[in-house]
Structures are given as structure tokens and as C-alpha cells.
Amino acid sequence: MLKPDYPFARGQFRRLGWDFIDGWREVLPAVLEAMAKNPQDTGLYDFAVEGLLQYALLTTPADALAILEQQTSLTPFEPVLDALRVLQDRDHLHKLAPERQTVALRLVERARSKAAKRVS
């Protein structure tokens, strides 16, 4: 099991487990739980965001939303919620305020860009 608050473990997971659905399915709840306990850990937050977006690309945005929505505090993840909903339904973008649209699109682009780099 990954120790989410341990940067070396996150790095190893990025290298070895990034493209595996089952790994993310097991790791994401622990990562989100660790985030709830230590919301100031920006490295952990970045890993959680990247992981949720990667999981959405490997499975479906609805699967990633289901994991995220089990958390008690979604406030830090509102931009990710927007991005996942845009991945799921592009029309959701038009329901967002312009500044939220920009952030959601950047997250979607970032996820797709990372996925494309890993494939090539």
C-alpha cells in the first residue's frame, strides 16, 4: 500500500503504477484521506489532482467522481470536480463562471497532455 504522505512513494507510484486502474482504485481513497488530514501538503494535493484526472482517463469521469464524492470535504477539489464533469459532459463547461471554465479547461488539457506524453 502506498504511503501517500511520503514523496518517494508517490514518485515510485508515478513511475510504476501510473497507468494501472487497479492501482489507482486502491490508492486514491488513501490519498484523499491523507489530504483531508494534511490539506497544506501541496505535493500530496498535486498528486491527488493528477491521480483523479488519470483515473478518469483510464476509466470514466463518473468513476473518478464517485471516488471523490465519498470525501467529506470537497471544497479543495472543486476545480477537479469541474474538470471531471467537463470530461464527462462538455456542456457542463457552459454552466460554469468564466474563471472556473478556465481552470477546468486547463486541468482537462493538463490531464490529456500527460496521457499523450506517456503513450508516445
What does this structure look like?
The chain has helices at 7-16, 21-37, 42-58, 61-68, 78-88, 98-119. The protein is mostly helical. It contains six helices and no strands. The mean pLDDT is 90. It has one domain (7-119). Helix 3 (42-58) crosses helix 6 (98-119) and helix 5 crosses helix 6. The N and C termini lie far apart (29 Å).
Topology:
Blueprint: H1 7-16, H2 21-37, H3 42-58, H4 61-68, H5 78-88, H6 98-119
Helix pairs in contact: 2-3, 3-4, 3-5, 3-6, 4-5, 5-6
- How many strand segments? 0
What is Rg? 14 Å
Distance between the termini: 29 Å
**Backbone shape:** globular
How confident is the prediction overall: mean pLDDT? 90
- For this structure, the quaternary state is single chain
